[in-house]
Amino acid sequence: AKVMMVVQPGERNAFDQRWIEYNLLKKYGDIETFHGIVLIRKTLAEVAEQGRLDQETKALYIYTFSVAYYRSAYATTDYPTEKEWEGRLLAERSLAIKCPTIAYQLVGAKKVQQVLAAPGQLERFVKDPESAAQLRASFTGLYPLDNSPEGLAAYQAAMDNSDELVMKPQREGGGNNIYGKDIQKVLKTLTEDQRNAYILMDIIRPPITKNVLLRKGELQRADVVSELGIYGIFLHDGQKPIRNDNGGHLLRTKGVESNEGGVAAGFAVIDSVLLV
């Protein structure tokens, strides 16, 4: 079996990617001879150039891949030419397990999150009222910036006071959100149609703690905030779930003064949870 990891050209954030590669071999094969579940790295352009889709079986041939695991293809810069789009379409049409599929990637888009948070939408997918209420209690406020009555009201609220808001585009990878008074400045430059590309969110104010960060080889005492992410495992056959489970967690900690939270970008550090 082979896993295709779709990566960016000249990828520098490869340390955890290699860890996955070596552990697949260690757990399911022979790391000395590279027999077993082998991970092969390809860019979207390489998928388009080297890939072939069997019209009958829908098997993806560069090698025959069982899984297409995306560590790129989330940003507009990952699609500089038509070739990258062709590579994504080729992989998406194949029978390989996609992580994620196009549909699941879109679920994480800011606009989709905002729509799912609207009254009545969550209940379409979570039928148990008590479970839906528990989930909704964890939501922060999400608002459109379109020409609907809700969008116009959100626009006016931001122009009146944007201190407790975040303005988000349909982008991933960090460095794209707009905060505080900068929201009003940006909104003044956008047309009504251009505002459709953004949503507004109530800013989350996590509790501030004191901690020690290791940065550039130096220990720094600082006021920090943390963000806990829970990994989910979800495998389905197109009709029904095969596995739906918890897959661990990631805790990132950053200085309280920072709006950004990327580790590779230098804003945050990997942390561990202290159970009390």
TrEMBL record:
Keywords: ATP-binding, Glutathione biosynthesis, Ligase, Magnesium, Metal-binding, Nucleotide-binding. It comes from the Eukaryota. Pathway: Sulfur metabolism; glutathione biosynthesis; glutathione from L-cysteine and L-glutamate: step 2/2. Its cofactor is Mg(2+). InterPro entries: Glutathione_synthase, Glutathione_synthase_a-hlx, Glutathione_synthase_C_euk, GSH-S_sub-bd_sf. Gene3D superfamilies: 3.30.1490.50, ATP-grasp fold, B domain (3.30.470.20), Glutathione synthase, substrate-binding domain superfamily, eukaryotic (3.40.50.1760), Glutathione Synthetase, Chain A, domain 3 (1.10.1080.10). It is an enzyme of class 6 (ligase). PANTHER family: GLUTATHIONE SYNTHETASE. NCBIfam families: glut_syn_euk (TIGR01986). Belongs to the eukaryotic GSH synthase family. This is glutathione synthase. It comes from Modicella reniformis.
